[in-house]
Specification:
By secondary structure, the chain is an alpha/beta fold. The protein has a single domain, classed as Aldolase class I (TIM Barrel, Alpha-Beta Barrel). 49% of the residues lie in helices and 16% in strands. An eight-stranded parallel β-sheet has the order 7-5-4-3-2-1-10-9, sandwiched between helices. Strands 6-8 form a two-stranded parallel ribbon. β4 (103-106), α6 and β5 form a beta-alpha-beta unit. α6 (113-128) runs parallel beside α7 (158-168) and α7 packs parallel to α8 (192-202). The protein binds zinc ion.
């Protein structure tokens, strides 16, 4: 099965009231862990690739080709999306689309609304020609992404959300509603009322950034209120790093990277499988 567009699986998820996991990938082992989890749980899945990860992989085409090769070798048989996470410019979204990404996020949310709309519209126009899905953001997710400094969340305004969706025809929307990238400082304060209103006004699938550290109840509530794509990164880093750290601390003489690499990969896969069960995407890979 070739890579699919995000819209193809996201509309079904919204209608069926389940969430599809977007798992950021940073190298071969992470990609294998995500794809193996998807295979075992018969779940559709989104491989998230940030611009930092694009640099780490060595270019936009590398994660696409790697995903395609693994899907073929693993005889995967579940829908897979390769998605640009937090695309910082129209140019980078175009580069990703040209390299074969099947979904891109244009994150122009730090600009005034009109500029956010202008950039989002430009990406949507280009993406349409290739059947690629586009995600936009309104407001600001708190915490830190990569090397960014830590910031407080800025809650999305429902009126701005409907304005952006109408004027850009974007496929899905990440309204920042109190979630935080990385580790939460204090208890999360999600605006569920705002989420409900934005979902009803825009009618597009919503995206939750910063799901790590939220409770199972939080996650289930966001899905019930119209969230269909759930981004996971920090919890996966914690899981992978803990397994590798334990392994190396328990065997000081160990130097074979494939030993601790595969242990980390296995633990990561199990963490992702638990997420898929929580999101309700298990068994949804069937056409
Ligand atoms: Zn994010």
């Amino acid at each position: 099965m070739a890579l699919v567009s995000l819209s193809k699986i996201l509309t079904k998820a919204l209608n069926g009231r389940y969430g599809i996991g977007h798992f950021d990938v940073h190298n071969l082992e992470w990609m294998q862990a995500v794809l193996n989890a998807a295979k075992e749980e018969r779940s559709p899945v989104i491989l998230g690739v940030t611009e930092d990860a694009v640099s780490y992989f060595g270019g936009f085409s590398v994660p696409v080709k790697l995903a395609e090769a693994l899907i073929k070798e693993m005889k995967l048989g579940v829908p897979v999306v390769v998605h640009l996470d937090h695309g910082s410019s129209v140019e980078n979204c175009i580069k990703a689309i040209d390299a074969g990404f099947t979904s891109v996020m244009i994150d122009a949310s730090h600009h005034p609304l009109d500029e956010n709309i202008r950039q989002t519209k430009e990406v949507v126009t280009y993406a349409r020609k290739y059947g690629v899905t586009v995600e936009a953001e309104v407001g600001s997710v708190g915490g830190s992404e990569g090397s960014d400094k830590v910031t407080d969340p800025v809650y999305a305004d429902p009126i701005e959300c409907i304005d952006l969706v109408k004027r850009t025809q974007v496929d899905c929307l990440a309204p920042a509603l109190g979630s935080v990238h990385g580790i939460y400082r204090g208890a999360p304060k999600l605006d569920f009322e705002g989420m409900k209103e934005i979902s009803q006004l825009t009618k597009v699938p919503l995206v939750l950034h910063g799901s790590s550290g939220l409770s199972a109840d939080h996650i289930k509530r966001t899905i019930a209120l119209g969230t269909a794509k759930i981004n996971v990164n920090a919890d996966n880093h914690l899981s992978f790093s803990k397994a590798v750290r334990n392994c190396l601390e328990n065997d000081k003489g160990l130097y074979d990277a494939s030993v601790y690499g595969s242990l980390g990969r296995e633990q990561l896969k199990e963490t992702i499988r638990i997420k898929m069960r929580l999101f309700g995407s298990v068994g949804k890979a069937i056409e």
